[in-house]
Amino acid sequence: MAITTSGLHHVTAIGGDPRRNVDFYLRTLGLRLVKTTVNFDDNATYHLYYGDASGKPGTLMTFFPWKDAPRGRIGTGQASVTSFSVPESSIGWWQEHLRATGVEVSRVRNSDNEETLTFRDPDGLVLSLVAHPQGDPRDPWDTPLVPAQHAIRGLHSVTLSVTEEDATAAMLTEDLGLRFLHQDGNRLRFEAGDGGAGALVDVLVTPDAPRGLTAAGTVHHVAWRVPDEATQVVWRDELLDKGVNVTSILDRQYFRSIYFREPGGTLLEVATDTGGFDVDEPLLELGRALKLPPWLEPKREEIEALLPALDLPRENNPEVAAP
């Protein structure tokens, strides 16, 4: 494989009530809502993007939230844990903050000497906050809801749950260009690019675990970074030549994407760094209004009638929000 990824681009999950989703990820986790749009394949639900101030690749967690979606089952064939990076000195603050909001938290130190808080969002999605010992130089979204010195810096890693590791490990190393770092029991760690927070994936091998069921509270797909569309075209051709079943290049308005499954079952995406969330609204106003791609604008009135209003805290757009 001539082309390799530099790290995670985003993780997309399925949620329940969109207003509850916004409340948790903005007010409890202190992320910024950088885009309010719809699922391009099912316009009856939002597609909500959370991240840093501008929604840089590697900071993004996105959701398809259906109010009445049934609860899914986390298991093999899925990304079973999504981890965010926080400062090493902030774990204690986050533990108290989450408990104060009624979130149950477990605290451990893993074999990489990373202190980790694990918890669930309101729909049961498993999340963790990880203090990477080498630190994380990325600037956080600065909001009074979560002080900047403690704020999430971006994605840290994802955990893929599989029943057998060989084929999944081969795709990660041979088709995505990741490097195997080490194995700790039934957990294998790989890194992309320069490594560190935002470029890690763990493969958890659980042969007897039940198969995951994709619905509310589960990850839909994991996206990896590619610098531009020209590189993506070459990469797609290489994957096709190796017999991987890859989609055509899809216009996601803010980036371009291809999709395929790794052998263990998790849906993967390769998304371009080019594009950005300020292509259809100013940086200071990100997330405030429903944005639709040109091909859906003729259906705006119909789409808006299906979607509940969102209650965004003024801190999401402090410079432009009404006092």
Automatic annotation (TrEMBL):
Q: Which PANTHER family would you find in this protein's record? A: RING-CLEAVING DIOXYGENASE MHQE-RELATED
What is this protein called in UniProt? Ring-cleaving dioxygenase
- What residues does the VOC domain cover? 7-132, 154-273
Q: What is the lineage of its organism?
A: Bacteria, Bacillati, Actinomycetota, Actinomycetes, Pseudonocardiales
- A Pfam family annotated for this chain is Glyoxalase
Which Gene3D superfamilies would you find in this protein's record? 2,3-Dihydroxybiphenyl 1,2-Dioxygenase, domain 1
Q: Does the keyword tRNA processing apply?
A: no
Q: Which GO molecular function entries does the Swiss-Prot or TrEMBL record give?
A: dioxygenase activity
- Signal peptide, first to last residue: none
Species annotation: Allokutzneria oryzae
The source's domain of life comes to Bacteria
**Alphabetical UniProt keywords:** Dioxygenase, Oxidoreductase
